[in-house]
Amino acid sequence: MSYLRTLGWTDELQKEFDAEATGIIAARVSAEHRGEFSIINDQGQTQRAAVSPTLRTDSALRPAVGDWVGLEQDPDGKWLIVRRFTRRTELVRKAAGEAVRVQVVAANIDVVFITTSPPGDFNLRRIERYLTAVSEGGAKAVVVVTKIDLCDDPNSYVAKVASIAPNVDVALVCAPQNIGLDVLRSHLGPGRTGTFVGSSGVGKSTLSNALLGEETQLTGPVRESDSRGRHVTSHRELIVTDSGIIIDTPGMRELALWGKPDATAATYPEIEPYTKQCRFQNCSHRQEPGCAVVAAVDSGDIEADRLAAYLKQATELAELATKREAQSRADFRQGQRRASQSDKQSKRSKRNPR
Ligand SMILES: Nc1nc2c(ncn2[C@@H]2O[C@H](COP(=O)(O)OP(=O)(O)OP(=O)(O)O)[C@@H](O)[C@H]2O)c(=O)[nH]1
Ligand SMILES: [Mg+2]
Ligand SMILES: [Zn+2]
Q: So what's the pLDDT on residue 216?
């Protein structure tokens, strides 16, 4: 089990494994390919594995990068993922498109490095969205400000982040000059897992390589006109380094939230208490009489920009909840239809035995 510890294996996982795992081996998912996965096993070897139909089709069980899984080997020597162990934390978002689906960015992570390069990419409202997603998934958030060699006053960004999230650590880094990497290492350590998320071109893969001490992740120049990246990294990948485990991810254009309607509470702690003091219980905090939130904006206790951002997130999450309810009703009806169809079929085959 020694290499599994290097990969982040815990006593809880060992208990779960001992309790119900027979004839399977434990491994961690390092990448996902079309329908297949790469896994790292207890010897530190990377192998391809398919996934059993049950795990593939059930979104609540489907493995993602960072997940701990149980594997079986078929007679031809091919590995099959047959079990997903309990996920300790996750970072998820709503998948792009019309379907109401969750997309797992990374599983079982200790820390999420919300990565941004000023001035163009730096946006407090976007950082707030990431903070909501991270707190909902149970990991710790750290804001990483990259390319400080190109920046006049890096420290001003520490103050800016502190103005919206005083308890969140901010790391100022420049990977090519080896600045700030120790701060990132201090959040990792043996067996701990971190993931880099943020826009394309901010330097996530450059940081992964610097922490690894090897150029395994492809990096690419940003456009000169607007400093935006060209989506160089195309899939999520788990990398093992001496100082911990890293999941490098492709640049995100947007982070559509996926979570419970109250997921905003941790991101906007100054707003949440007022929402309970409004005259109407279902107050939308826009223009109702007796709204304690709007009153707090008027008195200067809440910043107007923060309220606008809070309301945007809250609306998005409320709409998501409505859509998810509709979706689960539709799934339920479909399940009933399937069950009654197979019931009819089995009655037919009983009447007309072959
Ligand atoms: N000057 C400077 N350039 C950097 C720094 N970090 C990264 N870069 C450059 O920024 C460009 C983009 O870096 P990547 O690491 O590919 O960015 P990424 O976030 O992985 O981008 P995607 O994979 O597209 O999401 C590359 O040309 C890097 O060399 C830095 O600290 N300073
Ligand atoms: Mg990259
Ligand atoms: Zn109100």
A: 85
Residues 336, 189: Cα–Cα separation, whole Å: 49
* Helix/strand/coil percentages in the chain, nearest 5: 35, 20, 40
* Separation of CA 148 from chain center: 25
Instruction: pLDDT band for 59, please (50, 70, 90 cuts).
Output: confident
Mean pLDDT, range 216-236, rounded to an integer: 89
Q: Could you give the domains of the chain?
A: 2-84 (2.40.50.140), 90-248 (3.40.50.300), 260-349 (1.10.40.50)
Q: How far is the CA of 115 from the centre of ligand 2 (A)?
A: 11
Q: For residues 145 and 172, is the Cβ–Cβ distance under 8 A?
A: yes
Cα first-last separation, the chain: 51
- Phi, psi dihedrals of residue 269, rounded to the nearest 5°: -65, -25
Pick the atom of ligand 1 nearest to 220's CA.
Answer: 16
> Tokens 């007796």, residue?
290
Whether 63 and 81 have beta carbons less than 8 Å apart is answered as yes
pLDDT at residue 271, rounded to an integer: 97
- CA angle in degrees (0–180, nearest 5) for 184-13-106: 45
pLDDT at 304: 97
Asked whether the predicted pLDDT for residue 1 surpasses 70, the reply is: no
Query: Which has the higher per-residue pLDDT, 59 or 152?
Result: 152
- Ligand number, closest to the Cα atom of 251: 1
Give Cβ neighbours of residue 70 (< 8 Å, ≥ 6 apart).
Answer: 17, 21, 24, 25, 26, 27, 81, 82, 83, 84, 85
Helix, strand, or coil here: 135? Answer: helix
CB distance 220 to ligand 1 below 6 Å: yes
143 has a pLDDT exceeding 60:
yes
Q: Cα of 230 to ligand 2 centre, how many Å? A: 9
User: 81: which residues sit within 8 A by CB, 6+ positions away?
Assistant: 29, 37, 39, 49, 50, 51, 52, 55, 63, 69, 70, 71
Helical ranges in 21-85 per DSSP H: 53-57
